[in-house]
């Protein structure tokens, strides 16, 4: 379908596609097997100015938004979800600064993120605080001109590789989720260390680590917004970033369909290509239809966010939940079309199936997304009565 992209948006899409085909495709299997963070590709993306597509020009960005970010993420994910999330997670870490940072914080951190000189990461999840953000145990105590952080964060994408971390910690536990605050913590700060790199089912080339804070002292100027606004910072950040997960899912699904189509045209059984069998044709038709629907919803959600709309939680959740469910279904069907070959690492669809699964889990499980959607519907209906 024609989504009426501007010349600049077409350039972003085509540039990301070119890098994916020329730089990522030849090494994706090796990166996955070795679980190696793709620093050379990160550098290539930085040189292409793709890290700034969603950031304002005044901070060295291209002046785009969520939609432009989605275009880049989709094309990278079409080849490798692991590399794509390493790129996208830096935006996730930067969104809190972009949305809630003061002028000094934005001027200090966003230009280097836009240039790809420094990666960012977002730290909300803990061992006992995933879907229930109110269960955060990490604390931040104000002592004079410094906050002292203690606690751990779990499963942080870009953990250990990123230079700038947005961390949600409790400044007043008695207030529950309203006692959470958001902070900027730089890699190398005394008292800030990392756990082991996690071994994952999919997106293996991305880095996932535990963050450990032991009497970690940061300037009080590193507080984002105000004390007690951490939960709002986190939720607004996720509202803006979830279409990016939708785009990742769409890209993975499209890559799997591409592989299935090529295989079906070449694989001969009973004297003819399996693409001539109606059973296979119907599978591919459903896959393509689902992908296009997911793409349309994801793009619409991203554009809605970029329009400046205030209440975007519902449509953002819809894009994430629908696209990720599509990705899981399409990659499973792609493996089925390839049969025994699809189950082998020699072919990329088994990796795509592994990569697709996490899109249903991170940045809020799909079960939580359905809660968000349903509660929004109930609220909207009540306001109309």
Descriptive report:
The strands form three sheets. The chain has a four-stranded mixed sheet. The protein has a four-stranded antiparallel sheet with strand order 2-3-7-6, covered by helices on one side. Strands 9-10 form a two-stranded antiparallel sheet. It is built from eleven helices and ten strands. The two termini are 38 Å apart. It has helices spanning 7-24, 28-34, 39-47, 66-77, 81-100, 103-114, 230-266, 278-306, 313-338, 349-358, 366-384, and strands at 120-123, 139-143, 146-157, 164-170, 180-186, 192-197, 208-219, 223-224, 268-269, 272-273. A hairpin with a 2-residue loop joins strand 9 and strand 10 (272-273). It is an alpha+beta fold and 385 residues long. It has three domains: 7-119, Butyryl-Coa Dehydrogenase, subunit A, domain 1 (Orthogonal Bundle), CATH 1.10.540.10; 121-228, Butyryl-CoA Dehydrogenase, subunit A, domain 2 (Beta Barrel); 231-384, Butyryl-CoA Dehydrogenase, subunit A, domain 3 (Up-down Bundle).
CATH homologous superfamily title of the largest domain: Butyryl-CoA Dehydrogenase, subunit A, domain 3
Q: How much of the polypeptide forms β-strand, as a percent range? A: 15-25%
The chain-level structural class is alpha+beta
The CATH class name of the largest domain reads Mainly Alpha
* N-to-C order of helices and strands: HHHHHHEEEEEEEEHEEHHHH
What Rg, in angstroms, do the CA atoms define?
Answer: 21 Å
Number of domains: 3
CATH topology of the largest domain: Butyryl-CoA Dehydrogenase, subunit A, domain 3
What would you call the shape? globular
